[in-house]
Specification:
By secondary structure, the protein is mainly α. The chain has 5 helices and 3 strands, in the order H-H-H-H-H-E-E-E. It has one domain (15-129). The chain has helices at residues 15-39, 43-49, 64-75, 78-90, 93-112, and strands at 117-118, 121-125, 128-129.
């Protein structure tokens, strides 16, 4: 996994911490895929639903603040873990199967470096910048909302 040089004040993980978070994604993806295999549930359902959380990217059409909020709500592990708990409490297998697919997707995204988003835009994640020019883009000293220089103490 390639390290990308980022501004230490960007709020994004860097170096070994970033690599560790991405390896957690690998383990989450593998673990959830194995759990799904053990469950005996339909692989067709897995394939059809695996990228469903990415529909949340459409919220960016309403602006970066709303887009980041919706994307992060769908791409954090909180909601699928609550779904797991619901499945356990109700003894229903469907919520668990859906949560496993959802968690596998989150792991897949993290493995690829797609982290939770900042309001600055889709390319700004807790795992660093993403996109075509992520490694070559120099950090801006301007506020992304106002384009005014950021004052430092």
């Amino acid at each position: 996994m390639a390290n990308v040089t980022i501004d230490e004040n960007s709020g994004a993980a860097a170096g070994g911490v970033r690599d560790l978070l991405r390896w957690e994604g690998v383990i989450l993806l593998i673990g959830m895929t194995l759990f799904y295999w053990i469950s005996g549930a339909s692989w067709l359902i897995f394939a059809l639903l695996f990228f469903l959380p990415d529909v949340s990217m459409l919220a960016y059409l309403a602006g970066p603040r709303i887009g980041a909020g919706v994307y992060n709500a769908v791409h954090s592990t909180i909601a699928p873990m609550l779904l797991v708990l619901f499945g356990l409490v109700t003894a229903e297998p469907l919520p668990g199967s859906l949560a496993i697919i959802w968690l596998a997707h989150i792991g897949f995204d993290r493995m690829l470096g797609y982290g939770l988003k900042y309001e600055a835009g889709f390319r700004f994640t807790h795992l660093g910048r993403i996109g075509k020019n992520a490694a070559t883009t120099t950090p801006s000293t301007a506020n992304p909302a106002t384009s005014e220089p950021i004052k430092t103490a």
